Structures are given as C-alpha cells and as structure tokens.
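re: that chain from earlier
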Amino acid sequence: MREPDTANEVALRALRHRDLSVRELDERLRAHGYGETERDDAIEALVRTGVVDDARYAESRARQLAARGAGDALIRHTLARAGIETDVADDALLALAPEAERARTVVERRGPGPKTARYLLGKGFSDEVVSDVVAAESARELG
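^ sequence. v structure.
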C-alpha cells in the first residue's frame, strides 16, 4: 500500500505546471485536507528556497494578462484575488508598458469607436485612458 502524499509533494506537483501565489498554494493544500501547520511548513520551505515567490508570480501573471489585453484594474483585481499585496502588484504593473500604450494597441487592432471603448472598459482599462485613446484614434481617422 502506498504512503499518503506529504503536503510538500502535493505542493510541488501543483507547481509543476505553473507558478502559484502563496494564497493559491495554501488553498490547494487545504482542499487536499492538510491542516494549517502542515500547509504553513510546506509553504515556508518553498518560499525559503525560492520555489514560491509572490513577486515573481505577480510579474509573470501581470505580463500574461497584459498580453491578453487586460487593463490595470483587471490585473490588480486578479492579483488581489491571488493574495498578492498591493505594493507587490504595483511593482508588477510598473514593469509593464503603460496602460495607455496597451490600450492604443487594442484600438489599433479593433478600430476606434463605442464597441472598442466598451471592450476596453470591460477589460479593466480606466475611463480616462479609454476616452483619451479612443478619442485620439477617432480624431486621427477623421484627419
């Protein structure tokens, strides 16, 4: 008969496919029935050895979301749900192209107009950035 997996083994298997935040990893271990002490010990060891790093996770996740057309608000929200501290999320956002530049890329691909403005707002871009970028592109189209 096989020995039950340790919290460390379960955590390492979960991290095999992608980075997880400390909170996400804790939730996975909790779902597998591990107690607080076991979870804390496993996570502390993984953080200490650099296998789990919320700053690295935040930068990577922010880049992924930005590449899919997400604005700053959506990125912040997603990182917060993963348990990332505000200052770590801010640093991850600073590593990205400015929100206005990312919005311009979307407008260039989709064209200016109300549908694109709604799309950008739905993707977490600020009202100010959306109105500035869509208006600028519309004006440029009109000549």
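The domain at 1-52 is CATH 1.10.10.10 (Arc Repressor Mutant, subunit A).
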